[in-house]
Specification:
This protein is an alpha+beta fold and about 500 residues long. The chain contains 16 helices and 18 strands. Among the domains are: about 120 residues, Pdz3 Domain (Roll); about 150 residues, 2-enoyl-CoA Hydratase, Chain A, domain 1 (Alpha-Beta Complex).
Length: about 500
């Protein structure tokens, strides 16, 4: 009898565990309810809903979502629909995530994952792992009979970028390829890979056995390109976030890996201000003609580190934002808001936050609530007295986002700047940022986050910059295949040669 009870309890426990899988069935009725709530959230709270898409386009993709639900039967099916809707809006601060019980279950999966990280080099997706079953640097042609281009297009929805930018999505794919593949195509027992070695016209085939979730990320942490791109993924110490070096009598390099250095109240921010001041005093005293500003690993950070840095690189008065607005003056749909407080208590505590928004966004025009001129983001700032006025060479990459891309856009707008590298994932003319809001869908418990401030950046109009794209470099240049193999910095090498030739 005791053994029977134990067996029964084990079965109940096992059922509970298996019910946490993203592959479990999920009713279309629940999907439709959550889709209705998701759309209502976007309309009432998300000022970026129509930033890059017309109302007709947004209505069209929701019609598509309705049709997809009719063909869907699992929790994962619905999650993928919500990811597609989230990505379509075009904001790098948008995110859709699984509830903890589902994400925890994914991390424990022992098989079903593609074993190796990949990286976009010279227009192809290459194996970014040494000593694997497929040689390092081999070009992937297809996996399980699906062309790699089709696979990648299906994975774009999991990593959001500003507007219709594509380059930034490759940042997500180079880190999470195996996870994204599992989310879109399901767990696979094995992977039949067609590939080509470099400088070979022969297409080879290799069957790879799947690995666990954790083993894939072990391989990613041991990726071949780590010496080149480690700053983007590392948890940087305070003394690793920025540096300056003078390389010859006319040129210096300022590298900023993140703007996450606290705000005006923190010692870290004050230390950064002291670094900037001493650096630019030195640059001015030595009468340097050229300054390379390298922000290729900068994925964002906190105000006002971005605009304070820009004050040393401009001769004009400027603002962080020309204007900013939100689409409400009271937090909408409070019962779905992602907060631990019980639903019945939320109305009693929300008054303070509503008053804060009403003070910060006091002016209503056409259903938009505009930011007060008194806020820091709208403040007119002056160039620093030690600002650099020589030739600026700004190095950018698809990793540049948020505060990083706002800074990059402002520097790119300077007449004395030459922008080198690859299109950023953050936009030139604006973005949705500042304040992040999160909601939980009632049936699926899927969590959706977005930034509520629709921001117009203080940048000049330029013919080579597009409203729905990232920042476009003046000189487009990415790492070459050979430089990938030897961990050489193609863009820095080119920039130094350019400065040398300009000097001649």
């Amino acid at each position: 009898m005791k053994k029977t009870i134990i067996t029964f309890l084990y079965l109940i426990f096992s059922i509970g565990i298996s019910a946490q899988s993203i592959d479990e069935s999920f009713s279309q009725k629940k999907m439709k309810k959550d889709l209705e709530v998701f759309k209502e959230i976007r309309i009432k709270a998300n000022s970026g809903l129509y930033k890059y898409r017309t109302k007709k386009q947004i209505d069209s993709i929701y019609n598509w979502a309705d049709q997809q639900i009719e063909k869907s039967s699992t929790y994962l099916d619905f999650y993928n629909i919500i990811c597609q809707l989230t990505d379509y809006e075009g904001s790098l601060h948008n995110s859709t995530s699984l509830p903890k019980k589902y994400s925890d279950r994914l991390r424990k999966e022992k098989e079903g994952y593609f074993p190796y990280p990949i990286k976009w080099i010279d227009g192809n997706w290459l194996v970014n792992y040494e000593n694997g079953e497929i040689p390092l640097g081999s070009e992937i042609i297809s996996i399980n009979k699906i062309p790699i281009s089709e696979i990648i297009n299906n994975l774009y929805k999991y990593y959001t970028t500003d507007g219709q930018n594509i380059t930034g999505k490759r940042i997500g794919i180079r880190a999470h390829f195996s996870k994204y593949y599992r989310l879109n195509f399901g767990q696979q027992e094995s992977f039949n890979v067609l590939f080509k070695r470099k400088n070979s016209g022969e297409i080879e085939s290799k069957v790879l056995q799947s690995v666990s979730y954790r083993d894939y990320y072990k391989h990613f942490n041991g990726r071949y390109s780590k010496p080149y791109d480690q700053f983007y993924y590392a948890k940087l110490k305070e003394n690793q976030k920025y540096k300056y070096e003078q390389i010859d009598s006319s040129t210096g390099i300022l590298s900023v890996y993140t703007f996450a250095m606290g705000n005006e109240t923190t010692q870290e921010h004050k230390t950064y201000l002291a670094f900037l001041d001493s650096t630019f005093v030195e640059i001015k005293s030595k009468k340097l003609k050229n300054l390379i500003v390298d922000i290729r690993q900068c994925g964002g950070g906190t105000d006002p580190n971005d605009v304070v840095t820009y004050s040393y690189l401009t001769d004009r008065n400027f603002q962080e934002s020309k204007q900013a607005w939100i689409s409400f003056n009271k937090i909408p749909l409070l019962k779905h808001y992602d907060i631990s407080a019980p639903k019945f208590l939320r109305p009693f505590g929300v008054g303070k936050f509503n008053r804060k928004f009403q003070k910060r966004f006091p002016t209503e025009k056409g259903g938009k609530y505009f930011m007060s001129k008194e806020e820091n983001e709208m403040k007119i700032r002056e160039p620093n007295k030690n600002a650099f006025t020589g030739n600026i060479y700004l190095l950018i990459s698809p990793a540049v986002a948020s505060a990083g891309s706002l800074f990059a856009a402002m520097v790119a707008g300077n007449e004395n700047s030459t922008v080198i590298g690859e299109e950023t994932m953050g936009g030139y003319y604006g973005h949705n940022g500042h304040t992040s809001f999160g909601y939980v869908l009632p049936k699926s418990k899927i969590i959706t986050y977005f930034s509520i401030d629709n921001i117009e950046q203080d940048v000049p109009k330029k013919d080579n910059q597009f409203y729905n794209r990232g920042i476009i470099p003046d000189l487009e240049l990415s790492q070459t295949y050979h430089d990938f193999l030897v961990h050489r910095d193609t863009q820095m090498k080119y920039t130094l040669e350019l400065i040398k030739n300009n000097g001649k």
